[in-house]
Amino acid sequence: MQAVILCGGLGTRLREETEYRPKAMVEVGGRPVLWHIMKWYAKFGVQEFVLCLGYKGAMIRDYFLNYRAQVNDFTVDLSGRRPIAFHQNEASAEDWRVTCVDTGLDAQTGARLRKALKYVRRGPFFLTYGDGLANVDLHDLLAFHTSHGKAATLTAVIPGGRFGELALDATGAVRSFSEKPEKGRAYISGGFFVFDVERIAPHLPERDDLVLEREPLEALAARGELMAYQHEGYWQCMDTYREWKILEDLWHTGSAPWAVK
Fold it and tell me: What is the CATH number of the domain that holds 218?
């Protein structure tokens, strides 16, 4: 299995950080959010990643080209007589194969996926966004996808509410108050897709304005070829500073649900 990750958008709602770097490279706990996503997939045996680059994509290229130096101690012999020596840390030893694909500065999500498909093998593959963290059971997600036999599966999540909620009893008394409720009222698509290459490709015409979540997924839904895996666990996107702060605080308190031990 391969995982395709969309990490080429502008991230305008997180401008405090994305003015200087792509959103996928915004750090949570000292590591890019993209790294956290990849670690979660690797936990389930995924070792091959295809990254769809766009805005400031050179920073992602440089990160992986220099990955060993980013995550290990090393010694440089300035005389040039010996090559650089890396002092490998077990915690940073990744057995990953990473393909970086320039999918264009202005391309939408469907166009980015279409451009990346030439690096994806036949059969099912994972796809997700480069700015969302969750504790989705990927084995269970893939088993669900295989069981229904349809072309595509998305992961349905219940997002955290943006406003406080009250629980009232019959008399109108407040029984509980939550400033930051854990769950909202309706499912949304949280990414963490599974697609079959042969069945999604015909829905991806050669247009840079093609939004995956519109024509392609709407067409699949109309034909009964799009299924939803319902995830009741943790999920959090990182669209705003407030949402980044939620992730950062969870990591530093040792309570991040997506953390891989």
Answer: 3.90.550.10
